[in-house]
Amino acid sequence: MKSEVNIGDNRLQMTRIFNAPRERVFAAWKESQLTSQWWGCKDTTHVDSVIDFRPRGTFSHKIQITTAGEMTYTGQFDQIIEPEKISWSAQFGPLTSRVTVEFIALGNQTKLVLTQEGFPSKDLCPIVSEGFTAAFNKLERLLEGVAA
What we know:
alpha+beta
């Protein structure tokens, strides 16, 4: 399934429907052993995730990328409403932004809406959306029980 992508001046919003219940999709975002299987762009070869999943808890995803070497994506959780919503402040290289992920139950499916705000220019939005699209593809395979 494809992601719907909307780009504003400094805002990216992506919507994707997953064929899995909301609780299962939500769990894939809070457990490091799961995020390490799907986080990162298509050229990601390894992810080392450490997650303290609670408000004001922190996380770190150390990512090995074939084309770019090692990158680290870190942040602090601002709000967690299980299994409905996660928001955090994120740092990825020089970029600091705010990310909100909403999980909407649609029977046995989940509509996921990711909103990221605070880009210095809208030129970065397509690059970030490409990375999240690849990650969502891997998450979809993981939720379907196929190795990501």
